[in-house]
Write a structure and sequence with these properties.
This protein is mostly helical. Helix content is 68%, strand content 0%. The radius of gyration is 26 Å and the shape is globular. The termini are far apart.
């Protein structure tokens, strides 16, 4: 974003109309030339398809099975449950899961369909970004759209089927933003209704869309230099209320169904603040220098205050610096606040389940990256415009080279998402302490019948993270199957210390207790499962079985 001088909204619109009347020939030439957004859109689509070609046939990954519609939800009644049975899906994103429901009816478990949808949504999001930037007359719109489309930091969001919630929600986010800007220009109610509809659809896809009202106010402040309570703030109040409600629902799911609580999240406000500063610089660094990208980054310790607090102080200093120059240009401050504000849900102040593995993940900055990308593209474009003819002649080739290089990096990183083994093994190369990777590789070995390898992988995971609920559960399964029931029970109990609401582990423990002739204790475990998840069929069936056993022999 760039800003030459503060102007009022009315005066800006008059100047805009005057320029349109004075330069019709130039505008017409641009519409026919390479700046035509439709030609650029085709170029973006082609570039994205080429860059993500290695991932188009990629297999289902880590938690894709929790997103691609499960068998019990594939009927019309299952679709009803997606919308009205809270807990039927991993998170309450009913529009996302409705999209998966529809896609499964089209191509079942063929992954290429899901991958193509993700790639097309990503290309559409890049094109919508282009349209919005052009409408706001921000320099470097085409460059920004190209960087966004082909930046390798977005591979995790596009090549991973589960992250369709990112690509689909961003399409709704940008559509709502564009429609609202149209409403703001003419105050036509039809544009407001359309914008509100897109906003609600976005919230039903992913809760990060709740940050849009703040982003729109930021854009209006950047453009006009002021905000009017009645004109600018009041129309967005219903959006804020809806976003807040959606955020509370998501927070409840994270804590109660995804177990985003306990020792892994026991941080003070000071620790969370220091963590937020480090997270900000991490993401900014990956955008500026996208190397060593990986699926799971090392999890930082938050015990030490120094030197991590320097990251926070540096972030505050940068924001303060941008604030001090807002009289000359509001653009740097607006871009920085957009970046920070959009990242706020994952800065560490709120509990998010993936923090168990790492405090950062590439897919977390899919939306926030727009702030940095647009700022860089606009800033470079303005510098080129103010430079000599030689620089201006070289600029297009340099821009193509930059976007092309990013595309090559994206193409290379896309190979990592070909299948689970490739993904986890490549992650272990960059992050040898990834216990999640070891646990998942152990699961794959177990499913292939390589039990000794599986047990070794699980034990390696426990050496790195002794309180890993997943690894303890898996070791327990292997031991119980080998007849070492008491040892297996001990591992289940350790798993439940870390994740007391894990219904699968409680069910496994109940089954092991039955095998150990401790039927009353098993009954208590199955009852506990049904208090957590009343419709969990395995626990309900096992509870009925143990009740029958106790009726026959009350002494068990």
């Amino acid at each position: 974003m760039t800003q030459s001088e503060p102007v009022s909204r009315t005066r800006a619109h008059k100047r805009s109309r005057a320029r349109a009347r004075a330069q019709p020939a130039v505008a017409s030439a641009q519409a026919r030339g390479l700046s035509n957004p439709y030609w650029v859109g085709f170029a973006l689509l082609a570039g994205v398809l080429i860059a993500y070609a290695p991932a188009l046939n990629g297999a289902f990954l880590w938690d894709d099975d929790a997103h691609v519609t499960r068998p019990e939800l594939r009927t019309l009644h299952g679709l009803w449950r997606i919308w009205f049975d809270v807990g039927a899906t991993q998170q309450y994103y009913p529009l996302l899961h409705s999209a998966f429901w529809l896609e499964h009816r089209w191509w079942g478990n063929s992954t290429i369909g899901y991958h193509l949808v993700n790639v097309l949504l990503h290309a559409l999001a890049a094109w919508l970004l282009l349209i919005i930037l052009k409408r706001l007359k921000i320099p470097g719109a085409t460059l920004a759209a190209g960087i966004f489309a082909l930046h390798p930091v977005h591979v995790e969001s596009v090549a991973w089927i589960s992250e369709q919630k990112n690509t689909l929600s961003l399409v709704f986010y940008l559509s709502a933003g564009y429609a609202y800007l149209r409403f703001d220009e003419g105050r036509r109610s039809s544009w407001y209704i359309l914008a509100s509809s897109f906003f609600v659809l976005g919230l039903l896809t992913k809760t990060v869309v709740a940050t849009l009202p703040a982003a729109l106010l930021l854009v209006i402040w950047w453009r006009d230099g002021r905000l009017s309570w009645r004109r600018d703030v009041m129309p967005l109040v219903p959006w804020v209320m809806a976003g807040t409600a959606a955020g509370l629902v998501t927070a409840w799911f994270e804590r109660h169904l995804l177990a985003a609580e306990g020792a892994n999240f026991a941080f003070t406000f000071g620790q969370r603040s220091v963590l937020a500063g480090r997270v900000l610089w991490f993401y900014a660094g990956k955008l500026l220098w996208p190397v060593h990208l990986t699926f799971v980054y090392p999890r930082w310790t938050v015990d030490a205050i120094w030197p991590p607090v320097l990251f926070l102080l540096a972030a505050v200093a940068v924001i303060a610096g941008f604030w001090s120059i807002r009289g000359r240009s509001r653009a740097p401050l607006a871009a920085a606040l957009f970046f920070v504000g959009s990242l706020f849900p994952v800065l560490g102040f709120l509990n998010v389940y993936p923090f168990v593995f790492s405090f950062v993940a590439d897919h977390f900055q899919y939306l926030p990256s727009i702030g940095v990308i647009v700022a860089i593209a606009a800033g470079v474009t303005v510098l080129v415009q103010r430079s000599g003819d030689g620089v201006k002649r070289l600029a297009p080739a340099a821009a193509v080279a930059l976007v092309g290089t990013l595309g090559v990096l994206t193409w290379r990183h896309s190979h990592d998402f070909a299948d689970p083994r490739t993904l986890f093994e490549s992650t272990l190369v960059r992050n040898p302490a990834c216990y999640l990777c070891l646990n998942n590789l152990g699961t794959m070995a177990y499913e292939a019948g390589r039990r000794e390898e599986a047990l070794a992988r699980f034990m390696d995971a426990l050496r790195i993270k002794p309180d890993s609920a997943e690894a303890h559960n898996n070791v327990g399964n292997l031991l119980v199957q080998d007849g070492r029931i008491q040892e297996g029970i001990s591992h289940y109990e350790e798993a439940l210390k870390a994740a007391p609401n894990n219904v699968m582990t409680r069910t496994n423990l109940g089954i092991a207790l039955v095998q150990a002739q401790r039927v009353r204790e098993a009954k208590a475990q199955f009852e506990a499962v049904l208090r957590i998840m009343p419709d969990y069929a395995p626990a309900r069936q096992n509870l009925a079985a143990v009740q029958t056993m106790l009726a026959r022999d009350p002494g068990q």
